[in-house]
Design a protein that fits this description.
With 323 residues, the protein is of the alpha/beta class. It is built from eleven helices and twelve strands.
């Protein structure tokens, strides 16, 4: 998939001396603003919470916040890792805030959220990697707004004991998301602190412990991967019984981050979506602006419907065998 762009597609030079691709029209979005956007911004500021929308410089922030949708980032704003694609600050994090679960529940209540997405920075400094804080947040949201469905986007908990994952699974989030981010070949440069098969195994363990929890994972495209590698990752995910695949375009947040090697076209994203559906994913979101939590609530509703239809189909097939 990766190609060498024509000279006129390169318009500027980064600090490292490498040229930077011009962003195509299909990736251009309106600047955020408006009353609803400002209201969401004010509520998040009032409660002292961080969002991945801001910290990761998400291009969809204007649209999502206007709709009063936000992905809350717990465990502080400082990550213990330094992934080459990520805009979140790296360093020594502060202590875990004991008031954070209640504040997240306040956001769910005040924004009348039907579905909430909760993510976090990596906290390798904590004994359980922050798993217990995820559980506290889930419990707080359920206590305050019991009808809100909960999706979590977790770190890999690499090097942590199994009970870190066990306690999260026992809390039974509706969706367990952990992104593989890129193909195995690129891990040493893109995710140097992570291991591909550790992340893959994490998703597999969730399904082994509680098959009723939907699992979800995603890739950024445009980092230099090729089609064969992407298809192999899809196969690996299906082997781990992942329900939901997201594919989106990587965007370089600053000149110091790894550069974009290719802007994948909408048609290419559609082709990947067709391949993914053929491989058996129950749900696929594939477009240049797709992100893990983009339209997460609507996608979750469709995912539940897809599973129900699948179960009904299996039941009908079994009845036919018994007849």
């Amino acid at each position: 998939m990766s190609k060498n762009p024509a000279p006129d597609e390169r318009t500027s030079v980064s600090d490292s001396g490498s040229s930077i691709l011009r962003k195509p029209d299909w990736l251009r979005v309106r600047s955020p603003g408006g009353a609803a956007f400002n209201e969401t911004h004010g509520l998040i500021r009032k409660l002292g919470l961080a969002t991945v929308c801001e910290e990761a410089a998400c291009p969809n922030i204007g649209e999502c916040w206007k709709k009063k949708q936000a992905t809350v980032m717990i465990l502080g704003e400082v990550c213990t890792r330094a992934c080459a694609f990520c805009n979140v600050k790296t360093g020594h994090p502060d202590k875990v805030n004991p008031l954070e679960p209640g504040h997240v529940a306040d956001v769910a209540a005040e924004m009348h959220l039907e579905h909430i997405v909760i993510t976090s920075v990596d906290r390798d400094d904590l004994e359980d990697g922050g798993a217990s804080q995820f559980v506290k947040v889930i419990e707080a949201v359920r206590a305050r707004t019991p009808n809100t469905t909960i999706e979590i986007l977790t770190p890999d908990f690499r090097g942590k004991p199994d009970h870190a994952l066990d306690i999260i699974v026992k809390a039974r989030p509706d969706v367990f998301n952990h992104n593989l981010e890129t193909v195995p070949r690129l891990y040493p440069t893109i995710r140097p602190g992570a291991r591909y098969f550790t992340s893959l195994r994490l998703l597999e363990k969730v399904r082994e412990r509680d098959p009723s929890i939907f699992t979800k994972s995603g890739l950024m495209l445009g980092l230099g991967e090729d089609r064969i590698e992407v298809n192999q990752v899809m196969d690996d995910m299906r082997q781990a019984d992942v329900d939901f695949l997201t594919l989106g375009q990587y965007l370089q947040p600053t000149p110091r981050h790894v550069r974009v090697e290719e802007f994948v076209t909408p048609d290419q994203f559609n082709a990947y979506a067709s391949t993914a559906r053929a491989k058996g994913f129950s749900m696929v979101a594939s477009s240049p602006l797709t992100r893990s939590s983009y339209y997460a609530g609507a996608d979750f509703a469709r995912l539940k419907e897809a599973r129900q239809k699948k179960l009904e189909k299996i039941a009908a097939k079994n009845r036919g065998k018994d007849a």
